[in-house]
UniProtKB/TrEMBL annotation:
<feature type="transmembrane region" description="Helical">
    <location>
        <begin position="52"/>
        <end position="74"/>
    </location>
</feature>
<feature type="domain" description="ABC transporter">
    <location>
        <begin position="333"/>
        <end position="567"/>
    </location>
</feature>
<keyword id="KW-0067">ATP-binding</keyword>
<protein>
    <submittedName>
        <fullName>ABC transporter ATP-binding protein</fullName>
    </submittedName>
</protein>
<dbReference type="InterPro" id="IPR036640">
    <property type="entry name" value="ABC1_TM_sf"/>
</dbReference>
<feature type="transmembrane region" description="Helical">
    <location>
        <begin position="135"/>
        <end position="152"/>
    </location>
</feature>
<dbReference type="Pfam" id="PF00664">
    <property type="entry name" value="ABC_membrane"/>
</dbReference>
<keyword id="KW-0472">Membrane</keyword>
<dbReference type="InterPro" id="IPR003593">
    <property type="entry name" value="AAA+_ATPase"/>
</dbReference>
<dbReference type="InterPro" id="IPR017871">
    <property type="entry name" value="ABC_transporter-like_CS"/>
</dbReference>
<keyword id="KW-0547">Nucleotide-binding</keyword>
<dbReference type="InterPro" id="IPR003439">
    <property type="entry name" value="ABC_transporter-like_ATP-bd"/>
</dbReference>
<feature type="domain" description="ABC transmembrane type-1">
    <location>
        <begin position="17"/>
        <end position="299"/>
    </location>
</feature>
<dbReference type="GO" id="GO:0005524">
    <property type="term" value="F:ATP binding"/>
</dbReference>
<keyword id="KW-0812">Transmembrane</keyword>
<dbReference type="InterPro" id="IPR027417">
    <property type="entry name" value="P-loop_NTPase"/>
</dbReference>
<keyword id="KW-1133">Transmembrane helix</keyword>
Amino acid sequence: MLRAFMSYYKPYKALFAFTLACGILAGALELAFPLAINYVIDNLLPSGNWQLILWGGIGLFTMYILNGGFHYVVTYWGHKLGINIETDMRRDLFSHIQNQSVQYFDNTKTGHLMSRLTNDLMDIGEIAHHGPEELAISIMTLLGAFGIMLTINWKLAILTFVLVPFLILFTYYFGKKMSVAMTMLFGSIADFNSRVENNVTGIRVVKAFVNEKHEMDKFQTNNNHFRFSKLASYKIMAKHTAFSQILMKFLLIFVLLCGTWFVIQGELTYGEFVAFVLLANVMVGPIQKLNAVMEMYPKGIAGFRRYLDLLNMKPEQEDRPDAIHVDQVKGEITYKDVVFGYENKDKVLKGVNFSIKAGETVALVGPSGAGKTTITSLLPRFYEVESGEILIDQTSIHDLTMASLREQIGVVQQDVFLFDASIRENIAYGKLGATDEEIWKAAEQAQMTKIIQSLPEGLDTLIGERGVKLSGGQKQRLSIARMFLKNPAILILDEATSALDTETESAIQQALAELSVGRTTIVIAHRLATIKEADRIFVVTENGIEEEGTHQELLQQKGTYSRLHQAQFDFDYAGA
Ligand code: ADP
Ligand code: MG
């Protein structure tokens, strides 16, 4: 773990060396003060020479100014180092999360990921700065103080230093306890985030069921757990502070008493005595810093450990080393004996076989839950087949790079996901950097020009989180415009118009018909009326592709399709 941590210093070697050097100089000056004062008291004072004493004062003051400068550098540039490292870690983590498979996101709570990226890494920057640097400086200052004390009076020096290991052991003990408390705290913050995220996303459901009280109770459970974890850590912190204060003062009084005794014995001059007391005081600084680092360390390390856990998890999917990048496929699709099931569940697809010619439009119909969406999710490798093979233009999709494969496929779904941004940005998501001209053209093809023009801010209108400020039909048009810009060779329309009213549906059908021109298109539709025009229709049931043919052919077969059709016809007729 230490090596992983240290590797983050690599890009900042110079910055690290610079702050460390300034820190060491500051430490050295810290040690020089007691010596200078020792000199003033024992040599300058008895001489009675005012001019010399004045120069001594000026010299001391200069030392303090220098010391101030060094402290500035260590504090500012040192923290800069820390925050740079923290930023790098966030970057790595975000990029790592982006590359996880869809399966991973199915099983991971958004709130937990949020905490990993924000809170968990919050203290690592502090550690990155204070950790190695202050550790080095503190230890050097302590050793330096000890060395100087030895030269002044070795007996008193050893007496003083007998206490130091106890102080350090004591800090270590508290650090360990703190680490446990912090891991618990981070876990509870993650739960907390997750709860809020869930509540906000589902607020319409909460309100519709009037379950605010119930949500409040659940929130309060998390909230109390958070309070409990936090209190536990404060208790450790309080004990630590109290004990270390007492021990520190004990050290000073101990030196004071022993020193007095040595002076009375005539083994120590007054100047040396003052220097000793001042040196003991100088030691308090590094010891307190060590304490602070030890206190911060568990926090940072608890976060860093959680960070590494996530970072060391390999993405489930990776390109083969010899994967091919395709620029433009024709769009021929073949499924050969495809078997697939979601984690720990029964197989959803138990041997699916079909092939679609380039440019053909094929409709998948069948009962809900039969696996239609699942079949199409395997094509862009959102999930991986368990056995069997999927080919595009006779090449296995596993032989293509994932990025170039996904470039070729466009999916329009029932529940459109839009980003909390302007209409322009949402359309241009299909082709980053698209010009306004291209965006307007796509909007026109998706039949949404009028809608955009009627909005006060046109393309710059913000559409809210997940596009809440647009109607279902408007959102669907936007997602179609986006697809015109993406211009994929293969198009998947998964119940794209199911949630729309009949009037909007027929307008969007037109846009979709235009979109599918010249592309291999797989349409999943609930309403059979919308797929009559398909070149071929596949009936998907739990047994795989049960029937296949044109609308007319399938009606004549009098099988599942004709039964489905009859049922819907009756329903529509009754409803009309
Ligand atoms: P259809 O689109 O035909 O209605 P789906 O392909 O969506 O059916 O679902 C097929 C089966 O797979 C269902 O039983 C469903 O519960 C299950 N399923 C769908 N998506 C997931 C998922 N992300 N994780 C686990 N199970 C899933
Ligand atoms: Mg579906």
